[in-house]
Amino acid sequence: MNRSNLTVPPEGAPVPAPHPDAPVGVPLGPHYARCFGCGPDHPTGLHLEAVSEDGLGVSATFTVGDVHQGAPGLAHGGVLATAMDEALGMVVWLLRKPYVTGRLETDYVLPVPVGATLYIRTRCTGVVGRKAYLEAEARMDAVDGPVAVRAAALFVEVPVAHFERHGAGTSGGDGAATSGGAGTSGGGAGGVASAADLGRRVNP
Ligand SMILES: CCCCCCCCCCCCCCCC(=O)SCCNC(=O)CCNC(=O)[C@H](O)C(C)(C)COP(=O)(O)OP(=O)(O)OC[C@H]1O[C@@H](n2cnc3c(N)ncnc32)[C@H](O)[C@@H]1OP(=O)(O)O
């Protein structure tokens, strides 16, 4: 894909070992019930479903709905980028450290119609200090279908305080904190409903 050197790990950058508690071969469940990418409580979200392949790579599916259109009948490019971002985020979620997307690069290879299912595979290609390098590929309608979207990203590790400081309404009982139980299905990585939950997940 066309990408900048900002999303390519420096030569020799180590690929991390999977976290000992990282699930393998099981659905991850949502990391947060109201997440636009994976949350079951989001009415028009992507409802992306992901499975940990080996603790460092993730397979995910996203079916384009009516609410995801840009041009008539076609997925909005920003929505597709979100699906890639979400699937990439599931990989760093497996590392059990808080990360945010710093940079996301996307190649749109094919138009993606409403009703199409994207089969997304993502992988961490290296970690240097707080920076995690990741890449993703989405194939249309089958795991071996044509490539529709490619993405590469740099995620940056942040302290839990990042979410406490910047996230409005995630710890004050406005419903987010009680929508609860996110990610507990499927034996996956476990979801959070607040920054405090996130802190417990990172430092159990
Ligand atoms: C309520 C609880 C909810 C819990 C939830 C848990 C989360 C579980 C996620 C699961 C899945 C979600 C999937 C979706 C993930 C999102 O969508 S995250 C939301 C979108 N992203 C954001 O909001 C991030 C906003 N940006 C920021 O907060 C800050 O700019 C950043 C990225 C933290 C960096 O700021 P900083 O901490 O001051 O770090 P800084 O020293 O500037 O940079 C550190 C290094 O990264 C590099 N860097 C930083 N930004 C960039 C960039 N854009 N390009 C290239 N390099 C960069 C720097 O050059 C530096 O490199 P070195 O000098 O170390 O070589």
From TrEMBL:
Q: Which keywords fit this entry according to its UniProt record?
A: Apoptosis, Cell membrane, Cell projection, Cytoplasm, Fatty acid metabolism, Hydrolase, Lipid metabolism, Membrane, Transit peptide
- Localization in the cell: Cell projection, Ruffle membrane; Cytoplasm; Membrane
Q: Which InterPro entries match?
A: HotDog_dom_sf, THEM4/THEM5_acyl-CoA_thioest, Thioestr_dom
Q: Where is the composition biased (Gly residues)?
A: 169-191
Name the reaction it catalyses. Answer: dodecanoyl-CoA + H2O = dodecanoate + CoA + H(+); octanoyl-CoA + H2O = octanoate + CoA + H(+); (5Z,8Z,11Z,14Z)-eicosatetraenoyl-CoA + H2O = (5Z,8Z,11Z,14Z)-eicosatetraenoate + CoA + H(+); (9Z)-octadecenoyl-CoA + H2O = (9Z)-octadecenoate + CoA + H(+)
* Any Pfam family: 4HBT
Q: Output the Gene Ontology terms for molecular function.
A: hydrolase activity
| Residue ranges of the TM segments | none
Matching PANTHER family, A to Z? ACYL-COENZYME A THIOESTERASE THEM4
Q: Which family does it belong to?
A: Belongs to the THEM4/THEM5 thioesterase family.
What is the protein name stated in its UniProt record? Acyl-coenzyme A thioesterase THEM4
Please name the source species: Actinomadura gamaensis
